[in-house]
Amino acid sequence: MNLENFEIIYKENRIEIKNKQKMKEKLIEIVGDGNVSIDKIDLLAYSRDSTLITLNWTIQGKIAGLPDFVVWPENKAQISEILRLANNEKIPVIPYGEGSGVVGGAIPIYGGIIVDMKKFNKILEINDKDLTATVETGINGMNLERYLNAKGYTSGHIPQSLYISSLGGWIAHRAAGQFSTKYGKIEDMVLGMEVVLPQGNIIDFKPIIRASTGPQLNKLFIGAEGTLGIVTKATLKIWPFPEKRALISYAFPIIEDSFNATREIMREHIFPAVIRIYDQFETERHFVDIEQAKDKVMVVFVCEGNKKLVELEETITKEKCENNKGINCGEHPVEHWFETRFRVTETSTMPPYKIVFDTLEIASSWDNAAKIYHSVIDSVNSLKGILIISAHVSHFYPNGVGIYFTLGGVPPKGKTEFEFYQKCWDTTIRGVLDAGGSIAHHHGIGINRSHWMEEEWGKSMDIMRNIKRLLDPNNILNPGKVYTHIWKGSES
Ligand SMILES: Cc1cc2nc3c(=O)[nH]c(=O)nc-3n(C[C@H](O)[C@H](O)[C@H](O)COP(=O)(O)OP(=O)(O)OC[C@H]3O[C@@H](n4cnc5c(N)ncnc54)[C@H](O)[C@@H]3O)c2cc1C
């Protein structure tokens, strides 16, 4: 089997490595024989992440992007040496967590060295007094959470991908978990970090709760998607495991009523750990057996923490829902959500039928939320070939929300699956930008959104590119992501 004979989707910019054997020997010198692979099966395994279109390609025998080497370093000194070597030889390096990213962030579109972080899996310290955990970043999310739970804590960061993602990936994409409304997003949780820079220097941001010490440079590496440095260690906030949980659900006549109720809860400075609004299409899909929710908008809440506070939060949450035409549906819908919250089988059942399927999350102020919701639903619905478009809202702030769209369809005649996929993405993002929203809430930029970054950031994009040039003059660290227009965009 010669992998290069397969169609490689992202091949235009591939950098040919002249003496691969020599490079392999140098990598072995750094990490040892068992920690370097050029086996075809490994190269294939690291040719994609979980971006859904890559599943359609896999079924058709197409490869997203092909790396030249996979390495498994065991300590920061090895990562530093790998980066020094790659920088000298001008070879791309792609940090790899668990490959659950959904925007192409870990796809090796230029080839090069995949640095798999899985051996960085240690929990180094739990500090009960400070409520912190210091952890290596390759750790699997579920392993971290199980360990913390057994010790009487929670990280509060429970993404749907908990079983299949790593701390490093969360930091790289500014991830958000299902309990984010109470505990915050990953950037609210990280207090300190260790980062290996593209030219091999190692920097350490000590854990600080806050400081008035100039611009907070550490934030630059949260959301950098592996383009500015490889994060090797982080100190996170943790919380005592909640004493009590209250499960609440209400059905609302229309989405605007559910927005009003949840916005009013946020205004009271009440933060249920989980709030999820399902529009009427998703309510039909997920809560078909709840009679009171038929043709309505289901909202589930989980309030958790100190027993007395939870009781108060429950009372106020219920009041706000009932004041906004909410019908109490009891605990059962929330129990159902708990049972099914990690289940994503529907997404992988589509590609075998040549259905293009994906999910996109965006951010909005309260003022624009209903406008964005309707504008995206209407504009995507008007695309030829669309079969479904729906949304849920799962991250709440006193000032706005994160909205998560799910779409699927079949390419119209004359269009490839990829062209149709790009059209769906661009139509959604255009709808969001025109209605005043922000293009990504927690999945990141990767390849899929990079051509929208100018419109999102305006002139600040020049500054971001300059920072990238300063830290990574040879553009070796995860090239082709965030700052580059690999997708040309389907608007023209
Ligand atoms: C079924 C499913 C459900 C999901 N649910 C959620 C959710 O609820 N919330 C959410 O936020 N996301 C969710 N995601 C998206 C995905 O899990 C996140 O983006 C996650 O943060 C990626 O982590 P990973 O370890 O798999 O990273 P990877 O996919 O391996 O890599 C992602 C990016 O991080 C970089 N990277 C990885 N490790 C490091 C490191 N140590 N240092 C620097 N850069 C690094 C990579 O280069 C790449 O750019 C979901 C994905 C799937 C498939």
Give your account of this protein's structure.
By secondary structure, the protein is of the alpha+beta class. It has four domains: 3-116, Uridine Diphospho-n-acetylenolpyruvylglucosamine Reductase, domain 2, CATH 3.30.43.10; 123-240, Uridine Diphospho-n-acetylenolpyruvylglucosamine Reductase, domain 3; 244-340, Alpha-Beta Plaits (2-Layer Sandwich); 345-471, GMP Synthetase, Chain A, domain 3. 34% of the residues lie in helices and 21% in strands. The protein has helices at 20-31, 40-45, 52-59, 76-89, 141-150, 167-173, 180-183, 186-189, 255-267, 280-286, 307-323, 332-340, 345-349, 366-381, 417-434, 453-457, 460-471, and strands spanning 36-37, 69-71, 93-96, 113-116, 123-127, 132-136, 153-154, 190-196, 202-205, 230-237, 239-240, 244-252, 274-278, 297-305, 327-328, 356-365, 386-397, 400-409. Strand 8 and strand 9 form a beta hairpin. Helix 1 (20-31) packs antiparallel against helix 4, helix 9 (255-267) packs across helix 11 and helix 14 runs antiparallel to helix 15 (417-434). The longest helix is centred in the C-terminal third of the chain and has 18 residues, at 417-434. It is globular and about 70 Å long. The mean pLDDT is 96. Bound molecules: flavin-adenine dinucleotide.
